[in-house]
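Re: export button greyed out
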Amino acid sequence: MSTPGPILVLNGPNLNMLGTRQPEVYGSATLDDVVQLCRQTAARYGREIDAFQSNSEGALIDRIHRARGIESGIVINPGGLTHTSVALRDALVIPELPIVEVHISNVHAREEFRHHSYISPIATAVVAGMGIQGYAAAIEFLIHR
Ligand SMILES: O=C(O)[C@@H]1C=C(O)[C@@H](O)[C@H](O)C1
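Workaround output, generated via the alternate export path:
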């Protein structure tokens, strides 16, 4: 049986600033730390990841379109686009690709406007509040589902 394709790990706006941006909320780990954690988690099971981060909605959508036929699942932290983007939600409706939405912080314990996600209704699973371990949990879920 062939090994499933890589898992695509997507990070949206401002997540390139991890480690510097509000460490009291998002912790001290950098985006590179997140990608390394995801890569190491997948490698334990002989699997690979592809990682992409953009502050631009359109670039994220273009990358999601390219995942078809290449990646086997998507782990996405949409950043603030979580709470605003119908276009990103629409791009993620890909029947053959499972989607896990990840938030480092517990968005439900924060400002009201962070309590709604356009992505959650079309996601296979949602992780929030686990810090960067949420990315590892998402990778594990996709590998073992
Ligand atoms: O917790 C997180 O990873 C999410 C990250 C962001 O940048 C915020 O806009 C979201 O509201 C929460």
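DSSP finds five helices and five strands in the chain. The button fix ships in the next patch.
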